[in-house]
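so the lab meeting is tmrw and i was supposed to have these ready like two days ago... anyway. pasting both below. for each one the top line is the aa sequence and the line under it is the structure tokens. i havent really looked at them closely yet so no promises
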Amino acid sequence: MTRTPGWLGRLGEGLSRAGKRLQERRAQARAEAEAETGPPLPVPAELPPGAAQPEPAGPAGTVPAPPSYAPAVAARPDPANAIPWGIRVAAEAGWRLLVLAGTLWVLMKVISTVQLVVLAFVAALLITALLQPTVSRLRRLGLPRGLATAVTAVTGFVIMGLVGWFVVWQVMDNLGDVSARVRDGIEELKQWALDSPFHVTESQINDIAKNLSDTIGTNTEEITSAGLTGVTVVAEVLTGMLLTMFSTLFLLYDGKKVWEWWLKLVPAQARPGVAGAGPRAWRTLTAYVRGTVIVALIDAIFIGLGIYFLDVPLAVPLGVFIFLFAFIPLVGAVISGALAVVVALVTNGVFTALMVLVVVLAVQQIEGHVLQPFILGRAVRVHPLAVVLTVAAGGLVAGIGGAVVAVPLVAVTNTVVGYLRAFSEEQALRRMPMPPPPSPPAPEIGEPA
């Protein structure tokens, strides 16, 4: 019995110490919470019914806690996650397309500012693609590079100059005969209109002629300004021809060094792909120019012979025009053929014009279905829709020069893009880890391991 009070005393002392330590820990935790969130708000005293509830006091900037009866508010999602996936993809593609469109717009503005220089350089590239094989053959025969370049360039430009002089000479030589035939053709057309079932009277025809004469007389100033603009255009054409000649000469002589210098401007990571695409693009351009020249020459010869045998004047100049307009795909053939038909109609009458139309259509059908697929081949084949759209876009941007260079530009771009795509796939396959070698088959039962 004497031991029980001592044991109870020790138990009470232990409990007291434990309670004291618990109170200390609670005070320490409360102090840490007050240090983080501030002291707790005082509990308001009971107020009589109808009295206004005072706002709880707290530190500056502290938002009071909502009352217990307030409804719970769901957490708002991240705005980026709230937007549907399709709209996010469209927005990502949209701003990139805007950047690309802005870049193209700036590029087109720069090109339009120096349009003469750009067209002269592109024409020099086309002429170089035509003459480069001749330079290579002369160098294989043992001629130095400078001499081979000079002989090829001088011969090519002399031939072009002679062709131009011959066309001008033929036009000037037959101008009187053509004028007389035009007057006779107009009289025949007038008589045909009077005898036609359209009930056209001579007074109506005279009124039309008088209106044309009055229009020309009224617009004399516009015609004069157009003539002055024509003088400016002639000066620009001569400047462009000189730039084309010098560019062609240096491209024939130092074309390889120019290409190597251009490769140094390309980033190092993209340089192997561009270096491989360049020769293939040049081969495509060369094939296009040579094939187009051959096809245009065949068109000019056969349509010119048909016009000559039908006794249409200016057969040789018309053949040259057909040759030149053949470099504008689709559109050039229509314009040159229509010009030949109009000349035949005005000079020789309706029957001769119909025969010229038959000749033009026959030669163009043979060209489109036989000559171009056989001569140009699949390397430079472009879809007709792409041809029409690119010729129209090139004509709107840079006139006749833009229409001429549009299709070879698309053909070269098609070759470059195809090669770069294949090159990228090949590089991706090379970077892939090699699969492990197959394990040998397990031995069958009864065979030694």
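ok protien two:
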Amino acid sequence: MQVSGNVAIVTGAASGLGAATARVLAAAGAKIAALDLNGDGAEQTARELGGKGYAVDVTNATNVEETVAAITAELGTPRILVSCAGIVHGERIVGREGPASLDAFAKVINVNLIGTFNMMRVVADAMSKADPLESGERGIIINTASIAAFEGQIGQAAYAASKGAVHSLTLPAARELARHGIRVMAIAPGLFGTPMLSGLPDEVQDSLAANTPFPQRLGKPEEYGRLALHMCENEMMNGETVRLDGAVRLQAK
């Protein structure tokens, strides 16, 4: 599918992977709907790209339904969804203070998994009502997993579980939505220079980068965006999670 002229929804678009992806897609000619819980950040990204920004809680069914309806009315039916909204929480299952917080675990699952599914279900419904393109395709959904889905570390049970579920969601969703001409992909990024990691001390960042075989550095958010763009353009990519990690494999801790 050619990106130019089509509406692309990007969540987590105020910063990091989401903002970089919105920039890459906009440069390819997409009309950007930038979504984030940080509405001011979403609007700032959108202004930069000539799109529209929306304050959205991806875990809220009504909020997402109303926002996608507004996007459809204001920009047109979305053909692209890239879900980058996510959070991380580190905590051992059994720590010095006792068992892990169930509320904290549930919050990570709620944002990273349920929020991703919430966006997918609503946007896929909108896509399914669009006229098919020449090839029969109506749209593509790209979700964000993580290498933690495959090599979860100690203290990251919630994050690994949420991202593992996003990975597991990819194939059944692709199979189900195929009849509508909608493809579903996931990207599993490794260690990227996002706000989540950039706040760490330089020596910690250098240590993380040194564990990546090649290139021996943190990933650049725009590299995630370029992979998302390629997925949009390559119609044979469907039902798969693609690692983007410089061949790094996470250790136990």
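from a quick look at the 2nd one: The helical segments are 16-27, 39-49, 61-74, 102-128, 157-177, 195-198, 202-210, 221-233. Residues 7-244 form a domain with the Rossmann fold fold (CATH 3.40.50.720). will dig more after coffe
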